Automatic annotation (TrEMBL):
<keyword id="KW-0274">FAD</keyword>
<dbReference type="InterPro" id="IPR000408">
    <property type="entry name" value="Reg_chr_condens"/>
</dbReference>
<dbReference type="InterPro" id="IPR017584">
    <property type="entry name" value="Pyridine_nucleo_diS_OxRdtase_N"/>
</dbReference>
<dbReference type="GO" id="GO:0003955">
    <property type="term" value="F:NAD(P)H dehydrogenase (quinone) activity"/>
</dbReference>
<dbReference type="InterPro" id="IPR023753">
    <property type="entry name" value="FAD/NAD-binding_dom"/>
</dbReference>
<keyword id="KW-0560">Oxidoreductase</keyword>
<dbReference type="GO" id="GO:0019646">
    <property type="term" value="P:aerobic electron transport chain"/>
</dbReference>
<keyword id="KW-0285">Flavoprotein</keyword>
<comment type="similarity">
    <text>Belongs to the NADH dehydrogenase family.</text>
</comment>
<protein>
    <submittedName>
        <fullName>Pyridine nucleotide-disulfide oxidoreductase family protein</fullName>
    </submittedName>
</protein>
<dbReference type="InterPro" id="IPR051169">
    <property type="entry name" value="NADH-Q_oxidoreductase"/>
</dbReference>
<dbReference type="InterPro" id="IPR036188">
    <property type="entry name" value="FAD/NAD-bd_sf"/>
</dbReference>
<feature type="domain" description="FAD/NAD(P)-binding">
    <location>
        <begin position="5"/>
        <end position="317"/>
    </location>
</feature>
<dbReference type="Pfam" id="PF07992">
    <property type="entry name" value="Pyr_redox_2"/>
</dbReference>
Amino acid sequence: MSSKNLVLIGGGHSHAIALKLWGINPLSGVRLTLITDVYQTPYSGMLPGYVAGFYTFEETHINLSTLAQFSHAQFYLDQAIGLDLINHQVICANSPPISFDYLSLDIGSIPTMINVPGASEYAIPAKPVPTFLAAWNDFVKTVINSPHKNYSISIVGGGAGGVELALNMHSRLSHILQEHQQPLENLMINLFHQGETILTGHNFSVSKIVETILKQRKINLYLRQKVVQISAISQSIYEIQCESKLKVNCNIIFWVTQASAANWIKASGLTTNEKGFILVNNYLQSVSHPHIFAAGDIATINNYPRPKAGVFAVRQGKPLFDNLQRMILRKSLKPYYPQKLYLSLIGTGDKNAIASWGFLGYRSPILWTWKDYIDREFMEGFKNLG
Ligand SMILES: Cc1cc2nc3c(=O)[nH]c(=O)nc-3n(C[C@H](O)[C@H](O)[C@H](O)COP(=O)(O)OP(=O)(O)OC[C@H]3O[C@@H](n4cnc5c(N)ncnc54)[C@H](O)[C@@H]3O)c2cc1C
């Protein structure tokens, strides 16, 4: 077999797993390349716990440079910005084009911000995660340095990500205020959601449990409120305006709305769905370009719509690895079917977690202990490679 180039774009959950498996079961005659815009990629399951201060940066991030070394992959710290599908090349922001015979994309998603004037100027999207964490850590420092002041935070988007951020941000900041003997009333957190109930996609019981916790923590929940504009009142005060004409002022705004795809994906000529996500078949293979694969948030499996969640990105790691190797070896590919019913464990920022499964919802500290164990075990799998 002549030497083949397999290029991976993005070090998301599926690629991290595929890289590790490649390191354990390498394929001779294949030049593996990873293009990533970060050295350390976050593990979504532990991100809210990092915000709460339960975990360190190292505990919640996978070192992609070490992982690439383990799998003997060439490592490009660069951002892919386009694909030349005719010449089989990845166009990068800083490096010359990178040629591929086979390609796989796992670049995640970003919150939808378009069409809301002021959102991209004044709100901080939850993704890319490094930008979000930099803004969050700066804000935490401001509160630590001036704990006597009043602070108001707004979170736009009441899905699992928004709810977890609201609860975990509350936990971290309340702790800081308590440490400095400041009243918790100095802190105001607002959560805006355009739906009827919080946590769209989860069952009614879970929504009700979350609503109760938000109330107990005095987090303002604005349901059926569609944010339509954000304006700057001063350097540190922003005004959120809703379709209903409701106006709320705050010091910082985090944006955690529905996932959307990077624009360059559709522009590349790959077949996408109406939202710009790469349409793949059950082999995680592009429906238009069989030598190209995609997994995680950026992929949508034709006829198997599922929420964009880390749990699916993780599950797709092994089938993606198998099919990339099988494709190169010219073996028949193996189908992957995403499960319909899946368990979500939602951390509530107080070392409790809610289990959401089908129509069932239940909250307990034991669930947090279990979640913490699963997450740490997952991350342990990426330590001490070599
Ligand atoms: C606040 C928040 C909390 C969440 N909590 C949970 C949770 O508890 N459980 C859960 O299941 N899901 C959760 N999610 C959803 C979860 O984050 C995503 O579904 C998951 O991260 C998707 O994984 P992925 O592998 O597709 O991509 P990602 O994990 O997003 O990884 C993509 C990688 O590709 C890199 N990249 C992106 N673009 C490029 C480019 N052009 N060139 C090179 N590299 C690139 C990125 O830097 C990143 O390293 C949460 C989301 C948010 C916003």
